Automatic annotation (TrEMBL):
<feature type="transmembrane region" description="Helical">
    <location>
        <begin position="112"/>
        <end position="134"/>
    </location>
</feature>
<feature type="transmembrane region" description="Helical">
    <location>
        <begin position="20"/>
        <end position="43"/>
    </location>
</feature>
<feature type="transmembrane region" description="Helical">
    <location>
        <begin position="146"/>
        <end position="163"/>
    </location>
</feature>
<keyword id="KW-1133">Transmembrane helix</keyword>
<protein>
    <submittedName>
        <fullName>DUF2975 domain-containing protein</fullName>
    </submittedName>
</protein>
<keyword id="KW-0812">Transmembrane</keyword>
<keyword id="KW-0472">Membrane</keyword>
<dbReference type="Pfam" id="PF11188">
    <property type="entry name" value="DUF2975"/>
</dbReference>
<dbReference type="InterPro" id="IPR021354">
    <property type="entry name" value="DUF2975"/>
</dbReference>
<feature type="transmembrane region" description="Helical">
    <location>
        <begin position="64"/>
        <end position="92"/>
    </location>
</feature>
C-alpha cells in the first residue's frame, strides 16, 4: 500500500512539473502573439511572423477587421487553455493523497470543465469564422481542432462529479463513526 502511494505521489509530482511546463509554454506563446499583434499596428512587418511563422500579412492588407477578429479568436483560445492548465496546477499543488476527496478539488475540477467548454465554444466560433473567411477571401486559415476540448471537458466534468460523491461519502463516514 505504501509502495502504491509513493508511486502515485511520484506520478502526480511529474504531472505537476509537466503541467507547469505546458502552462508556461502556452503563456509564452500567448504573450508572443499578443505582443506581435500590438507591434503590428506600429510596424506592419510584424504581421509576417506573429509567432513561429504565423503570417497574416495578406489578411491584414485585405481587411484590418478580419485580421483583428482572427487574432482575437486565436488569443482567446490560447488564454482559455492556459487558464485550464493553471487550474490543473492548482489542483496538483493542493491535492493530498491522504485525503484526496475535498470539495475544493471537486469544485476546481468542475471549473476546469467549464473553461474547456468555453474554449470549445470559442474554438467552434473560430472555425465558423475561418470557414467564412475562406469563402470571403479564398484563403484558408487554421484555427485548430476543437472537438477534443469538448471531449476533455466531459471527462473532467465526470471526474469532478465522482470527486463530489467521494466528498459526500467521506462526510457520511465521518458522521457514522
Amino acid at each position: 500500500m505504501t509502495h502504491k502511494s509513493t508511486r502515485t505521489q511520484q506520478i502526480l509530482s511529474v504531472m505537476q512539473i509537466l503541467t507547469w511546463i505546458a502552462y508556461i509554454g502556452l503563456c509564452i506563446k500567448t504573450g508572443a502573439i499578443l505582443i506581435s499583434f500590438g507591434v503590428s499596428f506600429i510596424n506592419p512587418e510584424a504581421v509576417k511572423n506573429l509567432y513561429k511563422g504565423l503570417d497574416l500579412d495578406h489578411l491584414r492588407q485585405m481587411n484590418i477587421t478580419y485580421y483583428v477578429s482572427l487574432v482575437s479568436f486565436i488569443l482567446a483560445i490560447l488564454m482559455l487553455k492556459a487558464h485550464a492548465l493553471f487550474l490543473t496546477t492548482t489542483i496538483l499543488s493542493k491535492i493530498s493523497l491522504a485525503n484526496p476527496f475535498t470539495m475544493e478539488v471537486a469544485q476546481t475540477l468542475e471549473k476546469i470543465s467549464y473553461v474547456l467548454v468555453s474554449a470549445w465554444i470559442v474554438g467552434s466560433l473560430s472555425n465558423a469564422y475561418t470557414s467564412w473567411l475562406l469563402k470571403r477571401t479564398g484563403e484558408s486559415f487554421s484555427s485548430g481542432a476543437t472537438d477534443e476540448l469538448l471531449f476533455m471537458a466531459g471527462l473532467v466534468f465526470i471526474i469532478s462529479q465522482v470527486f463530489k460523491r467521494g466528498v459526500e461519502i467521506q462526510a457520511e463516514n465521518e458522521l457514522t463513526v
